[in-house]
Amino acid sequence: xxxxxxxxxxxxxxxxxxxxxxxxxxxxxxxxxxxxxxxxxxxxxxxxxxxxxxxxxxxxxxxxxxxxxxxxxxxxxxxxxxxxxxxxxxxxxxxxxxxxxxxxxxxxxxxxxxxxxxxxxxxxxxxxxxxxxxxxxxxxxxxxxxxxxxxxxxxxxxxxxxxxxxxxxxxxxxxxxxxxxxxxxxxxxxxxxxxxxxxxxxxxxxxxxxxxxxxxxxxxxxxxxxxxxxxxxxxxxxxxxxxxxxxxxxxxxxxxxxxxxxxxxxxxxxxxxxxxxxxxxxxxxxxxxxxxxxxxxxxxxxxxxxxxxxxxxxxxxxxxxxxxxxxxxxxxxxxxxxxxxxxxxxxxxxxxxxxxxxxxxxxxxxxxxxxxxxxxxxxxxxxxxxxxxxxxxxxxxxxxxxxxxxxxxxxxxxxxxxxxxxxxxxxxxxxxxxxxxxxxxxxxxxxxxxxxxxxxxxxxxx
Length: 462
Hints:
Blueprint: H1 6-13, H2 15-45, H3 49-85, H4 89-121, H5 129-144, H6 146-161, H7 166-189, H8 193-219, H9 235-267, H10 271-307, H11 311-338, H12 340-347, H13 351-383, H14 387-412, H15 418-444, H16 450-453
Helix pairs in contact: 1-2, 2-7, 2-10, 3-4, 3-5, 3-6, 3-9, 3-10, 4-5, 4-6, 5-8, 6-8, 7-8, 9-14, 10-11, 10-13, 11-13, 12-13, 13-14, 13-15, 14-15
């Protein structure tokens, strides 16, 4: 079955415009989410330093959920984009059905695991008993709402794969705005504290998932039409999705594992340092979210170009997107450091926390542009069906460089907290060198479309 020419031919005719057509709505939606995180963190900051520390403790666990979602979801985006590039709508629809089935299965699995081991796990994350108790009050709600979170996210990735980022972004923006009001209501008016923030997120996520299901299963105006029979995926479809999704999920989980170990190192300097690191990671999200949006959009566009066999457009689009990513990340990093003190004061009045946070952001001015290259190359390789190479890049950053340097500095040489920040800087620089070398080999020294134009057997009967 051949899909209508429509969006694919428009993208092929104007590749640079295609990057922004897909990426710009993602960037806008992600920046709004980051703004929401700033507001929510400010709300939580009014509950005290212990509440901020509790949220910082939970960051690796929450990032684990995000890692699995982004790992499988970005793989789904890449495979659907490649199928549309080949004009193979049957494969795209089969992958879409698999996305929903995966969302249900993974969500239920996370609920069971989270409720089973969560109470014990949060006590081993490095914070005080009071912070751990607050952390569990938040995480329990997240675990219960995981199925809705997974399904809603995978539906967004499905639309990203066909090049429609506007529809899911509009839905996400509406849910985010609703969550701001729900946060204020649950945290302050109803007096639910940190648990109220989690409840607000669960309610907003439920509404977003319901709207996405209506759009895709009832209204059905999108290119990739979903049918109930596609919700029972064929094994060949599962295998194709897992081949991309599992390595990418491991990549994301490795990032979460690295964040967990960094949290433990930072926690050894006290709650004030941990709170500063937590606020600093919010700034990281501000700096990198536009790059994440650009990288995510590039997966769709480059996947389509690769599926269509256009190596020339893959190369040109890769260079174009990377240049913009470095420019955006570098500019935001400089602005973040220049405004670091007033920004930190939004969340806390503790002088130690502000000082540690400012020093962290000084290092990040240099990390962000390097990280932009690493992130863009990893997503480009994923869009070309090289997920294992993306895993290699992240492993170099975290396992080979950043974590060893941070731990040796802090626990062997008893260096100040800057030892952790040096680990992040050196690790990111090393990963960038590896990323650029891989990009040159895969994209410029050979045909980058080889894996994408190969017709995978993903449409056999279930």
